[in-house]
Amino acid sequence: MSEAARSLLQRWGASFRKGTDFDSWGQLVEAIDEYQILARHLQKEAQSQHNNSEFTEDQKKTIAKIATCLELRSAALQSTQSQEAFKLEDLKKLEPSKYLAS
């Protein structure tokens, strides 16, 4: 893995942990903001052309799925309905820096 890819993973991991920290502390507005910002960055990378990306096509599919999970968690935090939500514990299992490092 290139140094640029490692740097991206570190930044994404820091942003992910910041969002989940806000989420676990009950700071929902801040968590939603962090999740949405990170999801946009991940989607941008997932949609980038292969020659402009530090990641393989399979990794980009995984990045897109993580972005979707962040969007689902953000939507769950904004929802006032008592539907089955995308839980914080589920989201924490998907930390990008851990999942994509291989």
Can you characterise this structure?
Residues 9-96 form the Axin interactor dorsalization-associated protein N-terminal domain. This is Axin interactor dorsalization-associated protein N-terminal domain-containing protein. It comes from Sphenodon punctatus. InterPro entries: AIDA_N, AIDA_N_sf. The protein is mainly alpha-helical and 102 residues long. It has a single domain, classed as Up-down Bundle (Four Helix Bundle (Hemerythrin (Met), subunit A)). Helix content is 71%, strand content 0%. The chain contains five helices and no strands. The chain has helices spanning 3-24, 28-46, 57-78, 88-92, 96-99. The radius of gyration is 14 Å and the shape is elongated. The termini are close together. The mean pLDDT is 87.
